[in-house]
Structures are given as C-alpha cells and as structure tokens.
C-alpha cells in the first residue's frame, strides 16, 4: 500500500523551498530515511530504550564526501529526567522538534506547552575529519547548554524554538533553532512525521565553522574568509516508525539540509545541500 500523507501534511510540505522540496520528494520515493529510536515512556519509574542504527551522512556540514556508520543508540528516562547517547535522542520524534542528546530535564510538560533544559557534549571538528579541512585548526570539543520551548496546537502539529550556547567558551558560539512538525498514523500502530526548520547562528559560531582567519589563510595558502551572524541552514525531514511486536520497532527516515548565507558561500563548503539517511532497530523496556 502506498504511503499517502493527509491534506495537512501536504500543506506543510508545500511551504518548503523548491531547492529542498524536489530532492525530498525524489529521495523519499527511492531511499530509506533517518532512523528514530522509540522514546521511553514518561512516568515515575525508570524506562529505557536500546537500539542500533546504520547512518549515512556528510563528513561535516558542507562536505561533499560522505561517511557510513554503525552506531549504538540508547536513552534512559526517569520522570522528567532523560539521558541519551550521541544521535540517540536526535533520532527521536518529529525531525525538527526532537529533544537532543545528552542530559535533559522537562521543566514544563503539559498537553500543549513544554519547556526543556539540557546539556550535551559537542565533539567539535578536526582537520583529519575530511581532506577539505587539512591544515585548519581543530575546533575543540565543548559542553553546550540548550533551552527548548515546544507547543502543540493540535491536529498532529508541533513547533519548537530552541537556543543553545557553548558553556566553556571554546568558540562554539550560539544557535537559535525553529522547527515545525506534523505527525499522523498512516496505518494502525504505525507512526509517520514530517518536519521543516531553520537555524540561525551568531558570528562566533559562523566564523569558527565556516570562516578562515587571516593567519590560517597565510599558513595554508587558502583565501581568508569572514563569516558573519545570520541564517545558517534550512532543513526538512521525514520519519516512519513501524512496530515489530510489543517492544521492538523498526524506524527509517531522511533528513535534508541546505546551508544559507555566509555558510553556503564559505570556501569550506563543497556542497551546500546534503542528505542524511539512517535505519534503526530499537527495543524499549515498556
């Protein structure tokens, strides 16, 4: 049976930029998509989820080379508190409204409004991650704080606004992200969702990840480049979650991202539009 989105989902996709919508349609028809680990159920008892994901993604934001990874996924929840491994929580829920990996606490969790505070470890970026980064200084790993405000207006829609910042002052800067998602059940016990979003970044983050300082340019023979604050990217995604019994779940999905502004024009950007695909098998305690 073909998967057909309801009218509300089609209206959501209609608002995508053409540069993102066309590849999304083509890839969604021909390839699997980002995987999502089934989230432990909220409550006063301890719940957890375990999984394994196959991920195909660019080596860094703006790269033309790709890397394939086999990654374990895990997430533990006790009441309002959650702890998730790398990418485990980023693969939960609607593509643009998920709670991110690391440690987090639900300060407010209502039927419509939610407020979440979290910490996560940012691995940074090394010159050995891709040949295009050779000779560039290492971006040090750091700890990022994140505040996420979510709202569910009803009828399957959800939206979020989040701010994250480098708490250790290691030039990670700050980011402001917005997302809009729509979820529905195409078949009994099956869950699907689509989403769009955008990310803004301050000048420190943009210069760290997409700029080339004059001294680095002189040392490496590259052209100096200054990246200023502004829109970093727009993104879209789709997720399909299929239960395999009472506790096992198979999840696939696809996420597309398109760099914007100074990030897209950076000499470090070899490909402004990228796709990340993944497939996961997950088990949860209840």
UniProtKB/TrEMBL annotation:
Transmembrane segments: none annotated. Coiled coil: none annotated. GO terms for cellular component: cell outer membrane. Residues 1-30 form the signal peptide. Keywords: Cell outer membrane, Membrane, Signal. Its main location: membrane. Pfam families: MipA (PF06629). It comes from the Bacteria. The keyword Lyase does not apply. It is found in: Cell outer membrane. Belongs to the MipA/OmpV family. This is Structural protein MipA. It comes from Pseudaquabacterium pictum. The lineage of its organism: Bacteria, Pseudomonadati, Pseudomonadota, Betaproteobacteria, Burkholderiales.
């Amino acid at each position: 049976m073909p998967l057909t989105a309801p009218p509300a989902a089609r209206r959501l996709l209609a608002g995508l930029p053409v540069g993102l919508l066309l590849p999304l349609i083509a890839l969604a028809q021909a390839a699997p998509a980002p995987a999502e680990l089934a989230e432990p159920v909220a409550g006063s008892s301890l719940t957890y989820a375990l999984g394994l994901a196959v991920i195909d993604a660019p080596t860094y934001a703006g790269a033309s080379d790709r890397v394939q990874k086999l990654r374990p996924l895990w997430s533990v929840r006790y009441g309002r508190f959650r702890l998730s491994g790398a990418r485990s929580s980023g693969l939960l829920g609607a593509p643009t409204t998920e709670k991110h990996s690391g440690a987090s606490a639900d300060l407010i969790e209502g039927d419509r409004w939610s407020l979440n505070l979290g910490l996560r470890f940012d691995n940074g970026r090394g010159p050995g991650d891709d040949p295009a980064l050779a000779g560039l200084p290492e971006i040090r790993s750091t700890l990022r704080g994140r505040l996420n405000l979510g709202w569910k207006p009803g009828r399957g829609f959800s939206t979020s606004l989040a701010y994250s910042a480098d708490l250790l002052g290691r030039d990670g800067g700050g980011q402001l992200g917005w997302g809009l998602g729509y979820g529905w059940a195409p078949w009994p016990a099956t869950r699907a969702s689509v989403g769009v979003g955008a990310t803004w970044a301050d000048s420190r983050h943009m210069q760290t990840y997409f700029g080339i300082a004059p001294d680095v340019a002189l040392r490496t023979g590259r052209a100096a480049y200054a990246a200023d604050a502004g829109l970093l990217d727009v993104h879209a995604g789709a997720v399909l979650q299929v239960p395999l019994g009472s506790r096992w779940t198979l999840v696939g999905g696809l996420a597309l991202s398109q760099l914007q502004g100074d990030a897209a024009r950076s000499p470090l950007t070899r490909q402004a539009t990228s796709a990340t695909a993944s497939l996961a098998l997950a088990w949860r305690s209840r």
